[in-house]
Amino acid sequence: MNKVIACPVCGLQLLAADKRWCCSAGHTYDEARQGYLNLLLAQHKKSKAPGDTLEMVDARQRLLDSQVYRPISDMLNQWVLELALNHDGGMQIADVGCGEGYYTQRLQEVLDDHQLPHCLYGVDISKDAVRRAARRSKQIDWLVASGGQLPFTAHSLDLITCLFTNLMPQGFARALRPQGQIVLLNTGLHHLVELREIIYDEVNLAALDPRPAMAEHGFDCKGEQTLKYRVSLTNNQQIMDLLMMTPHRWKVRNEALQRLEALNELEVTIDVVLHQFGQSL
């Protein structure tokens, strides 16, 4: 299958010659020795090193590799598999906000197991995250880029997956084919409520509902599934890794941090909601 990676400057398709990617306008990009492509332009950065830091990336990788979030990955893969089985021809799929690549790699394995033709792209704004992701699979095209400025040719993607990251419906709309689909995963009301009860005096039971924002940009909700289960963290490293991979890390007070650092076990609720979107007719 032809790849649909686009030049971030002019939007023309990039073609690879060995480790160098070029568009017909003459813009060139060298693939990093670790196996990823940096397509994040300086004007698309809000800081020198946007996205997750290496410390955050390593914490997320350790916790995800312990398989505590595997049921989330399984749910995502089942939805994507059903879409792929009902799709004519190969699929162009982008995992936006792929982080260190855990979910992307497991999706790749499922598609390969069912011998479904596809091109899979992992996109994240954090260079540290993508560098780690590139270790997971050489079959996936790993790209450093902004979700708001996705580096794909216009209306070329059949499917976008996006887990636990900011909504960027305008960027999705530019890259998605008219009949393309978007699968979003967000946290539910009780996600990590036990951790939040340690951090905050009062826990705000609120969940992100992506449907209003997606509707504003012409996307209808086509399906929804919730997943709720409990997991036991059995050592302090897991507890601190969980804190590090959540937005709560920025808000934890010293007193609460000391309590967490003293814990060697914690049972937490995993509560997530999946939504599938398609463009309005």
UniProtKB/TrEMBL annotation:
InterPro entries: Methyltransf_25 (IPR041698), Methyltransf_Superfamily (IPR050508), RlmA_N (IPR048647), rRNA_m1G-MeTrfase_A_prd (IPR016718), SAM-dependent_MTases_sf (IPR029063). GO terms for biological process: methylation. Residues 6-48 form the 23S rRNA (guanine(745)-N(1))-methyltransferase N-terminal domain. Keywords: Metal-binding, Methyltransferase, S-adenosyl-L-methionine, Transferase, Zinc. S-adenosyl-L-methionine binds at residues 69, 100-101, 191. Residues 93-177 form the Methyltransferase domain. Pfam families: Methyltransf_25 (PF13649), Zn_ribbon_RlmA (PF21302). Coiled coil: none annotated. It comes from the Bacteria. One of its GO terms (molecular function) is methyltransferase activity. Zn(2+) binds at residues 7, 10, 23, 27. PANTHER family: 23S RRNA (GUANINE(745)-N(1))-METHYLTRANSFERASE, METHYLTRANSFERASE. This is Methyltransferase domain-containing protein.
